[in-house]
Amino acid sequence: MKPPTDARRWPRALVYAGLVLLSLVFMLPFLWLVSTSFKGDAQIMKYPPEMIPNPLVLRNYSDGLQAAPFGLYLLNTLGIATAVIVGTMVSCSLVAYSFAILRWPKRDLVFFLMLATMMLPGQVTMIPIFMVFRKLGWINTFLPLVVPAFFGNAFFIFLLRQFFLTIPRDLIDAARIDGCSEFRLWWQIVLPLSKPALATVGLFTFLGAWNDFLGPLIYLVDQGKYTLSLGLAMFRGQYGSQFGQLMAVSTLMILPVIILFFFTQKTFIQGIKTSGLKG
Fold first, then answer.
1. In this structure, what are the phi and psi dihedrals at residue 179, rounded to the nearest 5 degrees?
2. d(C-alpha 76, C-alpha 194), whole Å
3. Which of 22, 32, 76, 251 has the fewest Cβ atoms nearer than 10 Å?
4. Shortest CA distance to 173 belongs to which of 163, 182, 183, 160?
5. Dist CA 168 CA 173 (whole Å)
């Protein structure tokens, strides 16, 4: 392969320079978050603002973690996130399998009706769903945050359905000829071949459950059942806010997401790239 000529090298260099510049712009809020977590109250309120902490304040992290039982909030959040991931992946993959692999009357019509539900804002259904959960006696429990995940998500069903359509039809027909049941076909053939798409769904679901604030705010009353997002809100009060501790705990809350994406970015990007190849 011939090396790129100067005529091609300069446009490519400009593209890379533009991407680096944009990445720095997108990283600026995170850098400001980390910087503020090491500042004292006086420097946080200083104008014009300063990026580099001076002096370096480390007590924001220790004081922030001691201000509330964040260990308990972490366990609550991880428990909810794990249950939501399991429910979402099982329910969405089953429904996507039905839309992509099985043949049944009016399948495409039902699929388009399901996609139409994505146009309905969550604010429209918030009050009716709350009234249903109140009648069931699920308020102040984790059930309203977990159970809906076992009934599917339209976007994730669409994502998995598009990926399932890329699986060779001959492979599925051969498995059926050998006597493979539909459940076994879904479990032993379709799911193992769909790891990139499943990883994408799992990562999106984890991010949604990890950062969810409105759901726990509506359904959880007991502070012993709070999640990390509700714990962060406790740093802002009526008469003042502890911005240093808030930024410190927020930094610690973001770290697991960054680490998870760092180790799964290859699979995540592959799942996004290959989920819309066939209609």
1. 90, 15
2. 30
3. 22
4. 182
5. 9
In the CATH scheme, what is the code of domain 38-273?
A: 1.10.3720.10
CA distance 191 to 196: 10
pTM here is 0.85
| φ, ψ at 233 (rounded to 5°) | -65, -20
The residues pairing with 241 across neighbouring beta strands, listed in sequence order, are 236
CA angle 128, 132, 133 (to 5 degrees): 120
Would you say how long the chain is, in residues? 279
Q: Which SS3 state, helix, strand or coil, does residue 236 take? A: strand
pLDDT one-digit tens code per residue, 105-129: 999 999 999 999 998 888 889 999 9
| Sign of CA pseudo-dihedral 26, 261, 51, 248 | positive
Domain regions of the chain by residue span: 38-273
* pLDDT digit string, tens, across residues 46-56: 888 888 888 88
Contacts of 234 (CB under 8 A, 6+ apart): 67, 68
